Amino acid sequence: MSGFLSVAGAVASALGGQSFTLGTVIFLDTEVPSFLKWGGYQDAAIMHRPGGGKTVTLAGYYEKPLVWSGVFRGFNGLSRANLLAAMVQAGGIHDFTGAGLSRQVTITSFECVYTDNGTVIPYNISCEVIPSVTNAVNSTKSALCSLIGDDASSAVDGISDLVDTVGSYISSVSSAISTYTGEITPLVNLFGAGSQISMASATLSGIATDAGALSSVSSQSAISTVGTELTSGQSEVSSVMATSETEISSITSNAGTDVVPDSGALVASVAHSGIVASTAQVNSYISRAIGNVGISNGTIVTE
Prior knowledge:
The chain is an alpha+beta fold. The chain folds into 2 domains: 2-131, Elongation Factor Tu (Ef-tu), domain 3 (Beta Barrel), CATH 2.40.30.200; 135-297, Four Helix Bundle (Hemerythrin (Met), subunit A), CATH 1.20.120.
């Protein structure tokens, strides 16, 4: 068998057989496999919908492990096998080159068979490919940009729902009484052209457009700009919330021994309570988006 392996090694060398390198170990002749399977896959979450539709969410590209087999032979075959066994036990990241590839890997499995008094040792090895820093950063950046865009969109939806819901209360207040006890800021003044809520809605719509355009190729400056816009938008939303909170306090202080002083105040207090709740939810979306902007530019660090 040793004679056959020697001949095979000589033939491989004559044909220009390529070497493999793993860390400090150089594989030659019969130690080099006749083939190496490599590739990867795009991790995807697929949600099937009624009627044949589906939503595909991509989580990133992952390379499959590099797995190969070979044979150590000669007087130092056992020592070379022991070296690889020590490498897999120690862990760590090693440079791999071979079959036209260049990767950083960690050895996850190594097995060998002791034969011919240690002069012929077939082996199998498996290496997990370590993603490049650039790919990992781009994947994280893409995910953060997606989250920022989603939260900005949710904030716009929250304001839109608020306008639709509270609009009916405005009509009720107007039909009940022209003014109500404890009124400081008429509810109708919060809506319509130039009102606090319409301005906040317009601001958030613009932010959602900018945030929705972010991706892994966006500059950090563009992401930071959206962060500044989000902070400004949050200030406008908080102003709406503060106005309604002040109105509720005024209604309560003028109620005397009653829960509310009159029917108009009752409708207004319900409407303003809805505004406070909705703006609080919108602010939570904006705060999370601002946090993700901070993570993307390194001002917020997560463990």
